[in-house]
């Protein structure tokens, strides 16, 4: 998962007392229809995962190809002191290629016969109201908060249902409060299709209730911070903080820092336990430092998990892991694990090829406390090449190749020792309204 820039509630509370609210978005409303938008993202995804050393009785390869359509409609707000509006989501996934012996990539729902469905779809809606620069929304939606983030790493994204209050009354400050009651998996269409596991390994109930509170505050163009809290009934309480800073050094050069930390404590009927039987109670943090010079960017990162249990997420959204070493295949989030990463990014714009980008990275983890050992080791190497068309009738069409190589003699990542993964992604965003 890509670590995102956030800003914080802690400094915002004091800074907000000296800042005036900026122009009211509701006062500038043009109307329900006039401010409406309808967008469709067409995503074509080929996914291959080769398990290099699985046993003869285990599936050694998963390989599927699909076409997805992600439609989002957002109305404007009616005029007046209180504005009303509606949003809608429509999702459709089509199987282009699969097979009983190659299913299980997470692109499609899988039947009892082990085969992937030919197609699947989902639709939902939400109502919203706005006063000044504060919006209250209830219904089906996507979220991107560090303690509750829906995942979009397959053909179609996760969808959650609930309330989300977003307030931007003070310039630079964004506050969020949410109450969510269900979460649908990326390859499922029924409510509460995401759940955890009980202590005996059996499937636990899905999300029943998650409450989120936090905010973002941008101090200036070079410094932002974050503070969030969440409570997921019968699973855990979670605290998150972030500081993100960048320092321009000279023309075309900059130094950046990104610090993330989670404190998680399990509680309730489905609380996750550590390998040694203790209840979940740990701290996971990462620090990434980057140096940019013209088209080049070099990043090094260190990450550490301490306490009891792995850093746990999933029932609170498959994207809820804003840590530097949460990358393509592994999160490097096992109990007691220490990991580091070296990354290189290249933007080809200055070489006369705007829209073309390249990324490669290597990450290694040690000291993981897993079933087979208390010193588990793992490493991953990723390559990512992307090109976005800059003009013409197919403007904004993107072509992307993602390759990941993962190895662990200790089976740190869900018992998997060696995985070679390839994703070919073509996306075309259409703006209809």
Describe this structure in words.
- With 433 residues, the chain is mostly beta strands.
- It has 1 helix and 22 strands.
- It has one helix spanning 9-16, and strands spanning 37-51, 61-74, 82-97, 119-131, 134-141, 144-145, 148-149, 159-167, 173-184, 195-197, 203-206, 210-220, 223-232, 236-250, 253-266, 281-293, 296-308, 338-347, 356-368, 376-388, 398-407, 418-431.
- The strands form 3 sheets. The chain has an 18-stranded antiparallel beta barrel. A two-stranded antiparallel ribbon has the order 6-7. Strands 10-11 form a two-stranded antiparallel sheet.
- Strand 16 and strand 17 form a beta hairpin.
- The longest helix has 8 residues, at 9-16.
- The protein is globular and about 65 Å long.
Write the layout of secondary structure elements.
Elements: H1 9-16, E1 37-51, E2 61-74, E3 82-97, E4 119-131, E5 134-141, E6 144-145, E7 148-149, E8 159-167, E9 173-184, E10 195-197, E11 203-206, E12 210-220, E13 223-232, E14 236-250, E15 253-266, E16 281-293, E17 296-308, E18 338-347, E19 356-368, E20 376-388, E21 398-407, E22 418-431
Antiparallel strand pairs: 1-2, 1-22, 2-3, 3-4, 4-5, 5-8, 6-7, 8-9, 9-12, 10-11, 12-13, 13-14, 14-15, 15-16, 16-17, 17-18, 18-19, 19-20, 20-21, 21-22
Regions with little confidence, pLDDT below 50 for 5+ residues? 1-18, 196-202
End-to-end separation in angstroms reads 30 Å
Nearest-angstrom radius of gyration?
22 Å
Overall mean pLDDT stands at 89
């Amino acid at each position: 998962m890509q670590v995102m820039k956030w800003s914080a509630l802690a400094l915002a509370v004091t800074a907000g007392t000296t800042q005036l609210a900026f122009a009211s978005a509701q006062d500038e409303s043009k109307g329900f229809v006039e401010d409406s938008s309808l967008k469709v993202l067409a995503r074509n995804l080929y996914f291959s995962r080769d398990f290099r050393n699985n046993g003869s009785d285990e599936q050694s390869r998963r390989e599927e190809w699909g076409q997805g359509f992600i439609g989002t409609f957002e109305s404007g707000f009616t005029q007046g002191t209180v504005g009303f509006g509606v949003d809608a989501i429509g999702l459709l996934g089509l199987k282009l290629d699969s097979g009983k012996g190659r299913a299980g990539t997470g692109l499609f729902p899988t039947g009892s016969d082990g085969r992937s469905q030919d197609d699947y779809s989902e639709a939902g809606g939400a109502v919203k109201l706005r006063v000044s620069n504060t919006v209250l929304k209830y219904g089906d939606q996507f979220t991107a908060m560090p303690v509750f983030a829906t995942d979009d790493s397959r053909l179609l994204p996760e969808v959650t249902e609930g309330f989300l209050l977003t307030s931007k009354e003070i310039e630079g400050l964004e506050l969020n409060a949410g109450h969510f009651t269900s979460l649908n998996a990326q390859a499922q269409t029924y409510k509460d299709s995401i759940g955890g596991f009980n202590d005996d390994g059996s499937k636990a109930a899905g999300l029943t209730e998650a409450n989120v509170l936090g905010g973002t505050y941008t101090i200036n163009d070079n410094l932002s911070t974050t503070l969030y809290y969440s409570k997921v009934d019968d699973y855990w309480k979670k605290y998150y903080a972030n500081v993100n800073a960048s320092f321009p050094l000279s023309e075309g050069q900059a130094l950046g820092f990104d610090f993330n930390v989670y404190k998680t404590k399990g509680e309730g009927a489905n609380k996750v336990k550590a390998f040694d039987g203790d209840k979940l109670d740990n701290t996971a943090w990462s620090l990434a430092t980057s140096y940019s010079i013209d088209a080049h960017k070099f990043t090094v990162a260190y990450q550490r998990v301490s306490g009891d249990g792995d850093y746990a997420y999933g029932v609170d959204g498959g994207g809820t892991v804003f840590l530097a070493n949460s990358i393509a295949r592994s999160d490097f989030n096992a109990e007691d694990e220490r990991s580091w990463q070296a990354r290189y990014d290249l933007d080809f714009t200055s070489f006369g090829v705007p829209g073309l980008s390249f990324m490669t990275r290597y990450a290694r983890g040690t000291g993981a406390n897993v079933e087979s050992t208390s010193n588990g080791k793992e490493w991953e190497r990723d390559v990512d090449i992307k090109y976005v068309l800059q003009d013409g009738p197919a403007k904004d069409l993107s072509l992307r190749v993602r390759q990941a190589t993962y190895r662990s003699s200790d089976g740190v990542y869900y018992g998997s020792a060696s995985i070679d993964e390839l994703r070919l992604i073509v996306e075309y965003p259409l703006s209809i309204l």
